[in-house]
Every structure is written in C-alpha cells, then in structure tokens.
C-alpha cells in the first residue's frame, strides 16, 4: 500500500471530526474522498500529511508510520492542495509555484536550473504559463486554484492530496485538471463533491458521513442509488455511461427539491415535469 489509514480518530475540542476511519490506497492509484459538508474529508487529508495530530490510530506511508518520518522527508514526499489559500505578499504566479521546490533545497540555497525547469513545466501543465509573471492578487479564483496545483506538481511528490481541486474551475478546466491528475502515475487522494467526476476519474471511492467511513470500493460498488439517497439526501439513477464507460449519476427531484421547483420563476408560473 502507498497510504494506509488505520482506525484513525481526531477531535476538535469535544467534537469528533474523524471517527475510527480505516482505508488504504495502492501505489499510483486515485482515491476519491466523498461526503456531505462537514463529513471530515478535509480533516482526514490534513491528518494524512500530519497537519493534524491523530488522537488514536496510525497513518502509514508504505511501511512507515507517518509520525516517525522527519518533517523534511515528509515535505518532499507529500504535497497538499487546499481549498483556499491567500497571501498579502506581492508574489507572482511563478513565485508561488516556486514555493513547491522549497523541500528540495537547503535552507540557504538559491533556486537551481532544475528548480526553474520544474516550475516552468508545472505552470505549462495547468495552462498558466502565460500568467507566470502576473501578481497573485490579480488572478481569478480559478487561476489561483490552477497555480496551487502547479505548486504541488513542482514539488514532485510521490503522494498528492487535493482538497476540492475543481473548486472555482469551469467545466473545461475541471476535466483538464482531473485528466492531468489521472496521468501523473502517482498516488492521489482527491476530496470531491461532484459524484460524476469521482466516478469518471477515481479508481476507488470512499464515502464519509459525520466523520465515519460509510463505504469504500469502486464506483460501481459504492455509488448506488440507495447509498446516494441515504448519505446525500437526493434520489438518483445510476447507469454506465455510453460515452466514457464509467458510471454516471442522474439526479431526480426528491421531496425537498420538488418543493423548491414548484416556486414560480421570474417569468411567472413554470411547469415541472415529474421524474
């Protein structure tokens, strides 16, 4: 296994955020981490890269207990792309991506030609090379997200953790980023809200609810109509797509959603076709 989480729990104050979760992912595979808001996805990612201290359980990278890996070695191995990150410092997109090379340099070392090449390549792979010299504060939300992913790529990790990497991105860049991640050939754990994107790009899916692991397995096993309604509170129809061959989820209007759809539109009354 590349990453193994063994009966891990974490609490913030008296609130249990991650509750006895066990899961694993093989080397070079993509694990999609799904669940409603507040289910513990982001906290679990932070636990895996040791930004949160577990109260019980073990996280392993290969055979190594993550708590015993030196910080510098861990930083060279794991890259985390978080949902939101900001700075008031006047940095260009190239400067931000260059931060990904920090674990590979000594404390007082300057950037090498290899560092510069890694930064240029990372920017190019996320379609941001043309914005390399633009100040961070002037970038759109989607552009900042792509720069953060480029920073992680420049780090050259063997394990990549992404917390909602498609947040703020248009459909084209959502597909491009996840396609890129799927071609990296490294171990990835991706927290997502979009079940269809998870079914398209993830080798394995884990579902969290209220900090507990509800199900884990392939999309065909995990993303059932019963589980989707139970965990996410929506009715759905699941079938294999004739376009890409992966499972596709089509949502139906449930009782709560139907009540909202009965509201008149701006132009007056609207007719709703029942699913």
Task: Give a short synopsis of this structure.
By secondary structure, the protein is of the alpha/beta class.
How much of the sequence is in beta strands?
25-35%
CATH class: Alpha Beta
CATH topology: Rossmann fold
**Could you give the distance between the termini?**
43 Å
Topology of this protein?
Layout (H helix, E strand, L loop, with lengths): L2 E10 L2 E11 L4 E5 L6 H8 L7 E6 L2 E2 L5 H7 E4 L11 H6 L14 H13 L15 H14 L4 E5 L7 H13 L3 E5 L3 H7 L2 E6 L2 E6 L1 H4 L2 H8 L2 E6 L6 E6 L2 H7 L14
Helix pairs in contact: 4-5
Pfam families: ABC_tran
InterPro entries: AAA+_ATPase (IPR003593), ABC_transporter-like_ATP-bd (IPR003439), P-loop_NTPase (IPR027417)
GO molecular function: ATP binding
């Amino acid at each position: 296994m590349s990453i193994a989480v063994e009966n891990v729990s974490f609490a913030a104050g008296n609130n249990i955020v991650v509750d006895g979760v066990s899961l694993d992912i093989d080397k070079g595979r993509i694990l999609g981490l799904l669940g409603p808001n507040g289910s513990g996805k982001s906290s679990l990612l932070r636990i895996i890269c040791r930004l949160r201290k577990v109260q019980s359980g073990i996280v392993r990278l290969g055979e190594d207990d993550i708590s015993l890996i030196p910080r510098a070695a861990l930083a060279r191995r794991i890259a985390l792309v978080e949902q939101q990150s900001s700075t008031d410092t006047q940095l260009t997109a190239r400067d931000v991506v260059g931060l990904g090379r920090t674990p590979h340099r000594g404390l007082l070392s300057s950037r090498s030609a290899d560092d510069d090449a890694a930064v240029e390549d990372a920017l190019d792979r996320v379609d941001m090379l043309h914005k390399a010299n633009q100040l961070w504060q002037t970038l759109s939300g989607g552009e900042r997200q792509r720069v953060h992913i480029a920073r992680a790529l420049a780090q050259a990790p063997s394990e990549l953790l992404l917390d909602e990497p498609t947040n703020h991105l248009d459909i084209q860049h959502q597909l491009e980023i996840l396609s890129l991640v799927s071609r990296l050939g490294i171990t990835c754990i991706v927290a997502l809200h979009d079940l269809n994107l998870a079914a398209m790009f993830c080798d394995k899916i884990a579902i969290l609810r209220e900090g507990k692991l509800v199900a884990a397995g392939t999309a065909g096993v995990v993303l059932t109509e019963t589980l989707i309604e139970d965990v996410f509170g929506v009715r759905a129809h699941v079938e294999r797509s004739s376009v890409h061959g992966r499972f596709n989820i089509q949502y139906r209007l449930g009782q709560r959603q139907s009540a909202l759809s009965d509201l008149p539109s701006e132009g007056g009354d609207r007719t709703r076709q029942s699913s």
